[in-house]
Amino acid sequence: MALAMAFLLAVYSSVFAQEGRLVGTAICASLALFLAGYVALTAVPYLARRTSLEWLRVSIEYRLTREGKFFIVFIFILAIAGLNTGNNLLYLILASLLAAILMSGVLSLAVLTGVEAKLVEILQKHGPVMERGALEELCVASGVNRFSFHAFVACSPVIAQYGHSVYGLLGADVSAETVKSLVARRWRERAPTRVLHSHGRTDDGKLWLSYRLSRAASTYAVITVPAALKDLVSGRFRLYSAEGRHVGTLAAKDGRAWGVGAFLRQTEARIDDSVVITIDLDQRTAVIAVGEGPATP
User: Fold this and answer.
1) What is the three-class DSSP state of 225?
2) HEC states along 154-217?
3) CATH number, domain 196-292
4) Which candidate, 87, 86, 170, 187, places its Cα nearest to that of 128?
5) What pLDDT, in 10s, does the model give residues 204-230?
6) Fold of 114-189
7) Which H or E element spans position 93?
8) Domain boundaries in the chain?
9) Are 277 and 287 in contact (CB under 8 A)?
10) pTM higher than 0.70 for the full model?
11) Which pLDDT tens digit goes with each residue over 93-120?
12) Burial class of residue 21 (count of CB atoms within 10 Å of its CB; 0-12, 13-18, 19+)
């Protein structure tokens, strides 16, 4: 807004100068220069403080939007006006507008950090839209935590949902056929999986439950308890690792158990890994172990 006012004042100062009205020329030129200096002293340092120097080494890709086209046309008009009038203030405003184009790309990268930046990078490389499961696996493989992935997919302003479990970059040019094919492929590849592998009792009477870690179980850390055991496995149990280290509390109620999420994250458990939980009903303790492939205690 300030730059627009400076532009108008610079134009008026040029008109007044041609008419020989020195007072009007001086006032308009001074106000235009003041507004341009105000922007240079306030907005530019603020933006510079928010930008790390390491972003200068990043390759920036610009895409021209409809608003951007109007902006470019306005710049050309301003450049022609500057050439015709020879007004230095017009050149100053022109330089500010060109700098704004450059800074728009730099700042758009600067505000995308961590998980959000990784999401955008993966979608730009494999997208611009992907099935949620495939996107999640690529993000996890690149070091993104599953909990962070679900949080950012749900609330990120640069990620949009284009269909059932189909996500992509906001504003991506995607056909309805592409979205339908991704949804259809998801349903074809989606098959019911048995999370609870087996269960039984040890020689000393303890209960053991063996699970194959599914995507849902690894994400939400909620496991099922066999119907035959849900009355026995109920309440809270002190949870220990196989090495005897206290890792949390296992809580169970109505055939569901939870409280193993922190341990799964610490051990970097993966989908299809086996998880064995051995429960001592008398001592109200549970021992959890993670491995690969089918497991028995």
Assistant:
1) coil
2) HHCCCEEEEECCEEEECCCCCCHHHHHHHHHHHHHHCCCCCCEEEEEECCCCCEEEEEECCHHH
3) 2.40.330.10
4) 170
5) 889 998 887 776 655 556 788 888 888
6) Arc Repressor Mutant, subunit A (1.10.10)
7) helix 88-110
8) 2-110, 114-189, 196-292
9) yes
10) no
11) 888 888 887 777 666 665 666 778 888 8
12) middle
Which of the pair, 287 or 25, is modelled with greater confidence? 287
Q: What angle do CA 133, 269, 206 make, to 5 degrees?
A: 125
Strand runs labelled E in 31-145: 129-131
CA distances from 237 to 221, 250, 281, 290 (A): 16, 5, 8, 18
Rounded Cα distance, 3 and 40, in Å: 10
Which residues does residue 168 pair with via DSSP β-bridges, in sequence order?
129, 160
| DSSP 8-state code for residue 63 | -
Tokens of 154: 């749900």
Q: Mutual orientation of helices 132-141 and 114-126 as an angle, nearest 10°?
A: 120
Q: How many residues does the chain have?
A: 297
| Residue 100 structure tokens | 């704004």
The pair of structure tokens assigned to 177 is 């056929």
Tens of pLDDT, residues 248-295: 999 998 888 888 888 887 887 777 788 889 999 999 999 999 874 333
Of 177, 176, 169, 175, the closest CA to residue 63 belongs to 169
